Structure formats: structure tokens, C-alpha cells
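Sequence and fold
=================
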Amino acid sequence: MTTVDAALSTLPAHAEGSEPTVSWAAVPADEEGPDGRRWVENVLDPGASKTEHLAVTNLGSDPVTFALKAADGYFTDTGRFTMLPSASTSVDAGTWIAVQDTVDVQPGETEVVAFTISVPEGAAPGDHPAGIAATVLARPAAGDPQGVGVEGRVGFRVLTRVTGDLTPALALDDVVVRYEYSWNPFAPGQVSVEYTLRNEGNVALGVKDRVFSVSPGGDDPGETGSPELTEMFAGDERTIRSEVQDVWPLGPLTARVAVHPTALQGGEPVLEPATAEVTAWVFPWPQSAVVLIVAVTVVLVRLDMRRRRRVWAERIAEARALGRAESDAGTAG
């Protein structure tokens, strides 16, 4: 179990003869205790260092020795921040953090631990993500030799910006527009807009206020977007997808995408919006099928009516001929 950028977690810590539950929190702090920050951000020169603090709270009923670990940070495919597992080797900002190995915390108590961020000389300018966490190893249950221990981690991100030439850059590519027909031919369908974002600079970016416009025939665009912030570190690539509802398949559909980036550290705009536009042609197949069925039905009904008229005309003509024949026979008699 890995939990980073979260204040609280619980983990069953199996021990001989009992199964206590360890519950704990780990948050940024000052020397006095938790200071309300969600994570730690600093701007440091190459060769500089800074001391920060971590507050570890034991919310369980037993004393716990927590291991303290730091590692390089990254975003998962779902956009959640985490840090490299203990079995992986950090190569960047995770190696810049020095912290004591363990901390003992009594039930209901909070211990504040100092840690130092030391930026090496020659560090590349830009944002460098790492994480720091208080961890507990849950051993396999007694009598289960095949069990696997689970490491629980609770912590937060530590983002260090190294001064120098900052080069924010965001690429928007591979915009794909797909139309999804409604099962009901008398109802509009939806358009899915998918595209790829790449953070090609050295600054961590938050992408928000995405706007997707789809205009049938170029008029009256429908707009939608996601209020959620998409966070991207340098080098990250993310595929974004959204849907525009209630769009009729009326030929050309033009999708316009505008992506507004801001800096994660500081939150200020750093770039003009990245934009792209793609036009796709969509044929109204369901509606055309309905029209075709109606047209064929009308033609068949008309043909049937003509056939019926012809049959009745033939029968009437036969009846008239029979009536004349009978009349002529009576006259002759």
C-alpha cells in the first residue's frame, strides 16, 4: 500500500497473537508542529540547502516505530502523486533529502522530525519532485509462511525549484475526434475529443480550463471542459479525453481545443494557451436509414395501392362485361 499526498492511512500490522491496526498521519510542519501546508515547495540555488520538518502522528493504540524515507516523486497514470518504492533507486531530488532513519511515536502523540534538502552543485535548473513519508511494514500473519509483507507509506511531495534558466513548454498533439451515434435515431449523439499533452520544459505545470468546442457546420459551438487540475512534471505525457453531448451528425464537425497551463509552484500563468483544431466529417447514417425506410415504405404503399386499384378496375371491367353479356343474351331470347 502506498499513500502519498495524503494525511492519514491505516494498515493492519500483523504480529504474533494479535492483529493491531496502525493508523497514522504525516504532514508538513514547522518546529512546533503541523503548519497547514499540503506539501513543501522551495526555490533554491545550486549548492544551497534548507531545513524543513515532518510531523508524524500515531492515531493508533500502540507505540509504533516508523521508518522515514525519501525518494524521487512522479505522477501515476491516473494523475496521483507518489514516490518510488523502496526497492527502486532514486536518481534526482529524492537523493537530496536527508532525514533520520526512524522515529518512535507513542499512541495519540505527534513527533516533529527535521529533514534537510541539499541541492548539489550543477543541478539542472527547473522543478525537481520528490516525496517523503513515514512508513510501516505489515508482516505476514502468524502461521502464513507464504504471506508477503506490505509496506504502508503516508507522506507528501517535496518540490524543489532550482534557480537558473526556466523554460516552460507544453505541446498539444494528436487531437482525435470521434462521433458516437445515439441508439435513438431521433436523438443527437456525442463527440469524444482526445488529445495528447507533453510537458517539454523544465517547469512543473498545472493544466486547467480545458475547452472543447464542436461546431456542426462551423456554427453554434458546444463547449465543455474539466474543472480538475491536471498536474504534469517535466517530461510527463498525458492523454486527455472529454465528451461533448447533444451533437447532431450534420457533416463537418470542428473540434477546437484550448489548454491553459499554469506553474504548479506559485500558480501563475507561464505560457499562452496551447490550441489545436481538427475537423471530421460525420454522415447521419441512422437518420438516413430512417428516411430510407420511410421512403421505401411510402413507395411500397403506393405500389400496393396501385395494384389494388388495378385489381378493382379489372374486376369492375369483368363485372360490366358479364353484365352486358347477360343483357345481350336476354334480349336475344
